[in-house]
Amino acid sequence: MTESAGTPGDPDDSAAGENRSPDAPPPGAEGGSGEKGGSGAAAAPGGETRSGSGSGPGPAPESPEGWSERPGPDITVKRKRHWLRWTALGLSFLVLVAAGVGWWLYKKLDGNIRTDTSAAAELKAYEKERPVSVVHDAENILLIGSDSRAGDNREYGRDDGGSQRSDTTILLHLAANRKSATAMSVPRDLMVDIPVCHKADKTATRAQFAQFNWAFEMGGTACTIRTVEKMTGIRIDHHMVIDFSGFKDMVDAVHGVEICLKEPVDDKDAHLKLAAGRHKLNGEQALGYVRARKSLGNGSDTDRMDRQQQFLGALVNKVQSNGVLLNPTRLYPVLDAATKALTTDPGLDSLKDLYDLVRGMRDIPTEKVQFLTVPRQPYHLNRNRDELVQPDADKLFKQLRDDKPVAVVPADELKGDGKGDDRNPDSADASGPSPTPTYSGNNAATDLCKQ
């Protein structure tokens, strides 16, 4: 059988022919005298017809093997989509884990807070006797430091059946515009009128004139609140009871607070032994420092309260610093310690309630967070007790009740005796504004080592 006559294929055509599919006919098999040779067309794989050059068949398509060696656009897109799908799944998983951890931490902190429902019930029963709020949005919170010797606190003294006394009581007034906060200490030995209250066993006490901390021992938080309201005419919106161990944990959570001692101290009762000079106190030392009475200062409760106020101001300053509030690893221990230490009324017994409260205070400048003590002097019938100095005390109570400003300066800067208001409003020009009452105290911006 003879090949049909015709012009030989070009070199390119021959090279292309080497890549033809094994099933494709050889060049020229249908050319020349063949049935389709006259048309110069060649059959492509799949039955399609490709036009030739007129002198021979055109190049054949690449083989499937060629496709697997050089991925086409469709395969690249599929690989990108596959990668994006796994990335999205991974990110979604991380978000879910983070949300789960965040929710667990929230529930843990929220569950730390204890609610005092009995005080709320007692206060509701005496609602008609309580003062009314004068200024909308201003808040008054009673902070009570409990000196119970029960549980973790037994190392600080004898446990007399778990009874409690108010070692420290502070009325915290938050201005309605949240531009200032005033913390007023009430001496535990201050002689006051204590109303009829109910004990834990529901029996009633008698109304009496006695030292202030008896109210907490006899009738708990509700009795203390009603005693403060009766004395000041200020309605208490919320209350918090803080125990010893919680205070220690809060100081440890901020990595200590710096103080300076002019003289060395060695107080076995307060578990405190320090040399003179600058010290960064840990929680245990800080508790001894604020509770020490006989070994620091003049040994009076007044001097101890001043020291407590100064230390609390330094603690507030430390907590407001960026190193704590903007650092989650340092903020969480503070929140954990604070919530474990608290027993609150139902209006502040959730993490959200406390967050809203702190959020309203976080922009108050430290110099506007002020600490002072009610104007007082030794009780005329017993020098170991205190009594209010009038009319200074009532002026202070009215300023806070009406949400008016007060000013504080160190005691040695007052021209008077440091008991209370050093400025006489009556001496001011009647046409001018009333002067701001000034009291002995300090603010959170005070450096304890520069006094």
What does this structure look like?
The chain is α+β, with helices and mostly antiparallel strands and 451 residues long. It has helices at residues 11-18, 64-69, 73-112, 117-125, 214-232, 244-253, 283-291, 301-320, 322-325, 328-341, 351-361, 392-401; strands at residues 41-43, 49-51, 114-115, 139-146, 166-174, 181-185, 191-194, 208-211, 238-242, 257-261, 265-267, 272-274, 277-281, 342-344, 369-373, 376-379, 382-388, 407-409, 438-443. A nine-stranded mixed beta sheet has the order 3-14-9-4-5-6-15-19-18, sandwiched between helices. It has a two-stranded antiparallel ribbon with strand order 1-2. Strand 11 and strand 12 form a beta hairpin. It is globular. The model is unreliable at 1-57, 63-68, 156-162 and 417-432 (pLDDT under 50).
CA gyration radius, whole angstroms: 42 Å
Give the amount of beta strand, in percent: 15-25%
Largest sheet: 9 strands, mixed
> Helix amount, in percent?
25-40%
- Cα distance spanning the termini: 122 Å
Shape label: globular
Identify low-pLDDT runs: 1-57, 63-68, 156-162, 417-432
Q: What is the tally of helical segments?
A: 12
Please report the total strand number as a whole number.
19
pLDDT averaged over residues: 76
Helices and strands: which structural class? alpha+beta
Widest sheet: strand ordering: 3-14-9-4-5-6-15-19-18
Question: What are the defining features of this structure?
Answer:
two-stranded antiparallel ribbon, 451 residues, alpha+beta, globular, nine-stranded mixed beta sheet, single chain, disordered N terminus, 19 strands
